[in-house]
Structures are given as C-alpha cells and as structure tokens.
Design goal:
Layout: H1 3-16, E1 34-35, E2 64-69, E3 74-81, E4 100-103, E5 113-118, E6 142-147, E7 152-164, E8 168-169, H2 170-174, E9 180-192, E10 195-209
Parallel strand pairs: 1-8, 3-4, 5-9
Antiparallel strand pairs: 2-3, 2-6, 4-5, 6-7, 7-10, 9-10
Length: 211
C-alpha cells in the first residue's frame, strides 16, 4: 500500500467509522462515538511503542482467512466485513459458529498500515464469542494471521487497552502508520443487558512473515 493509499484509508476510516459497530454482544446496534484519541484524556495509557517488536518486511496484499492467538486459545476462520447500508462497519453475524471478521477496507495483515479485525465477546444466547478472552492478552503475545495466498503474518502484541466507547481512539486505531500493524477490537467493561460500556483494543506489530 502506497503512502497515498494509506492516507486515503485513514481519511476514509475516520469518516466512515463515525458510526462504527464494534462486535460485542448479542445485538449489533451499539456504536461507540468517535472522539479525540484516548491518549489525550487524563489517565489514559500512552500509544503503543514503535520499537516493541522486531522489524519485519511488509507483505503484499492477501486477504486473511484464519487467525490464531495461542495465549487465549483462539483459532478462528476470518470472514470479510464491509460497510452496512447505514455507512457503519459490519460486524460478524450472531451465530453459534462465531468467527472473527476483517474490515476489508483496511490493509490486509502484513501490509503496511493498520489491519483491523473485529470479533464478538459474547454472541447472545449462544454464549461466549471468539474474542471473549481478548483482554487477557499481554505484551509480547503472538497473533498469527493465515492469508489466502498461503503465507502467514505473525504479530507481537505491544499494547492492550480498554477504553470507554465514548472515548474511542479512532486516530490511534485507524490512523496512518509506516509499518505493518494489527488491531483487534471487541467489547468489554461493565455490561447492562446486551450492551457493554467499553471497547477492548489490542495493538500489535508485524514480527515475522512467511514468504
């Protein structure tokens, strides 16, 4: 992805994701409000360090088809997500066979830029979602994306943040970066019915890739 393409994605994401629906619970009508990056708020964690993972060369574009996170027992197929009719980002459907979903207007895992993958923490009457343990990840844990072309991209976690949906850090999540990075997003925090107050966001950087 060229720098021009990355800037275009970041600009488009900031606009389209003003009504982002992040995969959370048993329904899909609970958008966070886009606000200034959470790091600008009192008590917020700093943005992830750019030196916390080994340097790795970027890959070409190839759609993710699987995601493994050994530390929390995730091994899931990955579906493609686009935009809903109201302009919001789609989330995976509420089904017993829960899967993660890659936002197809973001870079693919291993490309330069922030690749965005969403998942549910709960799936209504079906129980736990694929990202139910996302908040348990720790710095240095690995995340491996399996790509459609047979290659793999392995990322190292460098930050895990829980932020109020009202303070969703859109610039940090979707903003332009100069290396391959990954964002995993679900819901968290206090729950009232099917609603969660917060978002859990995992930031990771490419550590190695098969070629």
């Amino acid at each position: 992805m060229t720098s021009l393409s990355r800037r275009a994605f970041a600009t488009a994401a900031a606009a389209a994701l003003a009504s982002l629906l992040v995969g959370c619970g048993g329904h899909q009508t609970d958008p966070p409000t886009i606000a200034p990056p959470a790091s600008k708020h009192e008590g917020a964690a700093p943005p992830p360090s750019r030196s916390s993972a080994k340097e790795a060369h970027a890959l070409g574009r190839s759609v993710p088809v699987g995601l493994r996170i050994p530390a929390i027992g995730v091994n899931t197929p990955v579906m493609r997500l686009g935009l809903a009719s109201d302009g919001s980002v789609q989330v995976p459907p509420i089904t017993a066979d829960d899967r993660a979903g890659w936002y197809r207007h973001s870079p693919t895992p291993g490309q330069t830029g922030p690749s965005v993958i969403l998942g549910h923490v709960t799936v209504g009457d079906y129980g736990d979602g694929v990202f139910r343990r996302l908040a348990e990840l720790r710095r240095g844990d690995t995340i491996t994306a399996r790509l459609e072309n047979g290659k793999t991209a392995t990322f190292a976690v460098n930050a895990i943040r829980t932020v109020a949906k009202a303070d969703f850090p859109a610039d940090e999540v979707y903003g332009d970066v100069d290396r391959p990075e990954l964002r995993l997003i679900t819901c968290g925090g206090p729950r009232t019915g099917d609603d969660y107050r917060d978002n859990v966001i995992v930031f990771a950087a490419l550590e190695s890739a098969s070629r």
